[in-house]
Amino acid sequence: MGITAAAGLLLAGGVAAAVLPRTGAPAQTDAAPPAAGGSTAAGAVAAGRFARAAREFQVPVPVLMAVAYAESRWDGHAGQLSADGGYGLMDLTRVTPAMLAAGTPGGAGGRSAAGPALHTLDAAAGLTGIAPALLRSRDLDNLRGGAALLAAAERRLTGGTPADPAAWYGAVARYSRSADPAVARRFADEVYGVLASGARRTTPAGRLVLAARPGLRPDRRTVPSARGAGDGDGPQCPAAVRCSVLPAASATYQRADRPLDGLRIRYIVIHDTEGGYASSLRSFRDPSGDAAAQYVMRASDGAVTQMVPDQDIAFHAGNYWFNLHSVGIEHEGFAASGATWYTEAQYRATADLVRYLSARYGVPLDREHVIGHDNVPGVTSSGVAGMHWDPGPYWDWTHFMALLGAPAADAGGGMPATGTAVTVAPPFDTDRQAVRVCGQPTGASGGGPDHADDADHADDDAPARGCREQREPSDFLYVRTAPSASAPLFGDPALHGHAGDGSDAIDDWGGTVSAGQRFVVAGRSGDWTAIWFSGAKVWFANPGGVNTAPAPGAVVVGPVTGTAPAPVYGQAFPAPSEYPAGLTPSDHRPLAQYAVPAGQAYVASVAPVPSDDYVAASGVVVIGRERYWTVQYGHRLALLDAADVVARSG
């Protein structure tokens, strides 16, 4: 929290502002070059920390130095708590109810400890994956945490991290964490005053100098509102997309402050509505409803309606932890009705939107992060079977990823070698797999009635049909228990038990792999390729490698040789002991049907992420010590505790 912002909060609580450390006027102008510098070896090391943290998160070095000067005068106080409950050079705050009750530092005049302004240390931990203890005590990590907060604010405001320090005024104001726009602006003005006049100081870490920029004029057009920067009434959409706002019912989402509260947006989830555009908008606005997505895409022309702000948590994925970290995009259409429901206008508008969201929130453009609802894991062992399977087998992932600028390498380069990572890449137009559609309305995606926060709604007007075989251009391949077209289809344990065979029913997602998904090759036999899949070795037809492409540089994880199978999770909540007193922990246990036996390996996200949770009633984000990999486990993603596996390059 900025000093000026803290003063505003403390005065509101009735505490004299004199208890706060004062930054004082900036030191005299320095004529040194714009980059930070130090006159001693220790100063050079200290300046190097600023440069490293700024470079990692693409924050201009002068902005990071000026914010730190306004917060701490470049003195981390050896990790000791400041008067406003902050730690280190960037004054990352963590105020607890006990601190408030005891009147210790951070006990801001009887204020609630739930406010995000008092938990920027936890937010920084969520954004960086750095343990809170290191953010408190190590200067470099503290700077990295502050830089991550600034960068997250700037991306939400402008969609990028510009090199011009003048463009960061709104993000600096947002860094104050004040709900009062006037207080936030005062903090930003203080920081830009430091930038204009320069600063020099001998700190415990060495001599630091910030050169003066007397001609710098900040861009004040992106000043945060009372709720936060970029949270006005307009849509959060790229300029190229026809976008409007129609707020969803309040019961369909939770208010939050992503990613500035530490809940990083890591996934973009593609859905279909199982109904018309207008009826879906009505459903999400129904006060008795309990589900919505951030965006709804119209089939005819790709028009977009935003119904939930990105920073809030929409109930769309059937998995609360994935809801915490995702944006949901619904598409008018029916999952079982063939490829014609998904129009080129939808594909192109959605691609524009996803590229915008990726740039704004740092979501990687790959199939571990841009996923279908059918790829979201179940929450509990009993709930996996009922998870939705939209957008279904007729969403053209190959075309869509190419529109995103992230196509897979060309398939057909020969049979992949055992132990390497490959991308599933069947040619959509000629991959006409047979599926059986039985006893449901055209295209109903069959998520099951027990998923209160799933957002797919069957069209009540669609006629019920008997069983039929259907062959359409599709994005998937069947996987079998042996390298033969007559071998049984793999049966997912959650759908068929451990001994049951799979089927060609359109809603039997467990025995299929989709375009763009990546797996580790487990063997070869003639025209067949084996992969590790849902704890088993399965096979798919791949003559000459026509259905696969290389996946160079993939991160692969698996259990340590000779150890017990690694548990598989659908969520990544902290341990119960890590929740503050008075907060109820979320249930967190492995999915009983699944495991990763020793000797198997799965393609993972680039780095593990911290366990976390959001306690909506108090507005507190809880960050745990555990780290989890997102892996392509089967047709659905899964989470593996980093302590249970080892990583290697694929």
TrEMBL record:
Annotated region (Disordered), positions in chain: 438-474
Key word Cell membrane present: no
GO molecular function, one term: N-acetylmuramoyl-L-alanine amidase activity
Coiled coil: none
Protein name: N-acetylmuramoyl-L-alanine amidase
Catalyzed chemical reaction(s): Hydrolyzes the link between N-acetylmuramoyl residues and L-amino acid residues in certain cell-wall glycopeptides
UniProt cross-references to Pfam families, sorted A to Z: Amidase_2 (PF01510)
Signal peptide range in chain numbering: 1-17
Annotated keywords: Cell wall biogenesis/degradation, Hydrolase, Signal
Enzyme class of the recorded protein, top EC level: hydrolase
Residue ranges with Basic and acidic residues bias: 450-474
Source domain of life: Bacteria
SUPFAM superfamilies: Lysozyme-like, N-acetylmuramoyl-L-alanine amidase-like
InterPro entries from the UniProt entry: Amidase/PGRP_sf (IPR036505), Amidase_domain (IPR002502), Lysozyme-like_dom_sf (IPR023346), NAMLAA_amidase_2 (IPR051206)
Organism from which the protein derives: Streptantibioticus silvisoli
Keyword Hydrolase belongs to the record: yes
Segments forming domain N-acetylmuramoyl-L-alanine amidase: 253-392
Assigned EC number: 3.5.1.28
